[in-house]
Amino acid sequence: MLGKFIQTRNIGVRIFLNWQEKQSFGNFTCLHVKRKLSDMVNVLNVAEKNSVAKNVAQILGRGAIQTRETGSVYNKLYEFRVYVPSLQNQCLMKMTSVSGHLLSFDFGPEHRKWTSCNPQELFSSPIVRFVPETGMKIKKCLQREIRNCSVLIIWTDCDREGENIGFEIIDVCREVKPNLKILRAHFSEITGPAINRALNTLTEPNKKVSDAVDVRQKLDLRIGAAFTRFLTMGLQVPNNNNNNSDKNNQIISYGSCQFPTLGFVVERWKQREEFVPQPFWYITVESVKDGISCSWNWKRQRLFDERSCIAILSKISEHPTAKVTKINSKQKSKYRPYAMDTVTFERLASSKLRINAKRAMMCAEKLYTSGYISYPRTETNKFPPEIKLNDLVTAQQSSSEWGQFANRIIQNGGATPRNGNKSDQAHPPIHPTKYASNLNGDEKKIYELIVRHFLACCDKDAQGFEVTVQIEINEEIFTLKGLQIKERNYLEVYIYEKWYDKEIPQFVENEMFVPNDIDMKKSETTAPELLTEAQLIALMEKHGIGTDATHADHIEKIKERGYIMVTPTRHLMPKGLGIGLVEAYDDIGFEMSKPYLRAALEKDLVQICEGTKTPEHVLKTHINEYEKVYKESHKQKNRLFELVRTKINS
DNA sequence: GCAAGGTC
What we know:
Blueprint: H1 2-25, H2 30-37, E1 41-47, H3 50-60, E2 66-68, E3 77-84, E4 89-97, E5 104-107, H4 109-112, E6 127-130, H5 136-146, E7 151-155, H6 160-176, E8 181-184, H7 192-200, H8 207-235, H9 258-273, E9 279-289, E10 292-298, H10 306-318, E11 322-334, H11 342-352, H12 357-369, H13 389-395, H14 403-411, H15 441-458, E12 462-473, E13 476-487, E14 512-513, E15 517-524, H16 533-543, H17 551-560, E16 564-566, E17 572-574, H18 576-587, H19 596-610, H20 615-635, H21 637-649
Parallel strand pairs: 1-4, 1-7, 7-8
Antiparallel strand pairs: 2-3, 3-4, 5-6, 9-10, 9-15, 10-13, 11-12, 11-14, 12-13, 16-17
Helix pairs in contact: 1-2, 5-6, 6-8, 8-19, 8-20, 9-17, 11-12, 11-16, 12-15, 13-14, 18-21
The protein binds one DNA strand through helix 6, helix 8 and helix 17.
């Protein structure tokens, strides 16, 4: 086996020279080359984006790669030679890429113009699939290169969309070469071991997963377009942007993700609007001992009845002597963070670094394609047992900021990750894959967050000692808590969380003292705050609205449409138009702004992937559901539009 | 002029 391998490699080198000769001398060596090339299998490899193609080629080609232009500015072609186990052959690998989806769905020409048809027809009108102008150069490149290849290996991202993009590549290539052998590589980080493992474990691509995405695309297009045309043309809201749009109406869009996103913002706003503050009363006790002031907490916390509170106050004022009835001491831990999934990442970036989710994902994407971190779109928050965490921790020892901390983890017996219980069965939690020292700006901050979170997760919980003192004053109970931090552990590297000592005096059981002050205070309940971006993302995640990659886009979209705005305190506030749309649909009895419809679709898509439902069935069911809503809104359109107009003007 | 999902 080894002998064969070496021999094949030698042939590979010879052919390589001949191939270059062929380039230089045209047909001169043609016959000779033809004979030798027959030993070599030509393989076209296609990744989802150029950066992946480049880095995968660099790893597999061990630096011996040739770069060629493809006609598409962003997509290069990299050539190298490597032995591919599942083909049992030394291969001439041509590695190139698409730029995300290559194909696009749209209505046929007869339904594309807004005035061409009743929007309801869009639920059943023909849909065409085509390569948009922006992808034509990539398509030409794929079809040109596949002609002299017998194998196609798909290197798109290992998620649902990636599988679908894989089939787009397959369709385009099969158009010119129907009898291709097709293989799929599985990887979730671009490192030597992961990429070599992928090459050694090629499988068939998964059509079911790709089918699920087709269903999602068709549904989103039909429903989005039908309702958007209906609302925009029906409401005729004048456009206040002075752009060059020849249409004078503002677009009032509906989308299966943007509408529920809006719904969350409006719902919170409503809770706040409808909130009625409730007055409440509570008793405070102040004392001083050993020079330390203590504010004791009432066990009843608060009473909503003033007279009851007065009664208790007068009762304890009769014998205002406190007796220490209980002292509890216990170990207290502050837990280190779980391994990082995408939503946690987006929320931390937004709340701790003040980098909005959209920008944070862009930075993470760049760090991933540069090989610094693992794939940033993951729902997994537990590390697989086979991952070599100690190697990853060791790699961070070069840092002047957290290197010592990484070193300490290793010295103390190695990484002990705090794992959650979610796994998408495709990607590990977000973690650094190598040390980076040359980053700047937001990318640097994002990388630092990922590294510090990773090291914190691999370290130990912080340990403290909590003392709870309980007193009774004429049968009323009050408590005081003190905290002594013993071991900071993960907190030393995780600068985003704080934990403070709280010093309290020494007490002994049955000790008696007279408090310096006993008082009754009045306060009232406060309304919930408007949502922050971080909280909205958490809600979207919880209800399955959008993907890790698009949460941020949907929030941007509803801002752009004039449905919501951001307050100076960075809270999300719905505008009249947004409130009107949500209330109008609520009013005619449809939960369009609620997340349930999208969640139901998501569930069906998973079933398509698992093979328990057919794509045709799922598509038909959901189309029917939304068409019913459409017909009803059309029937009640005067009422619906009037409701929205009232809100816009209020 | 529409969606959501990829990416530059």
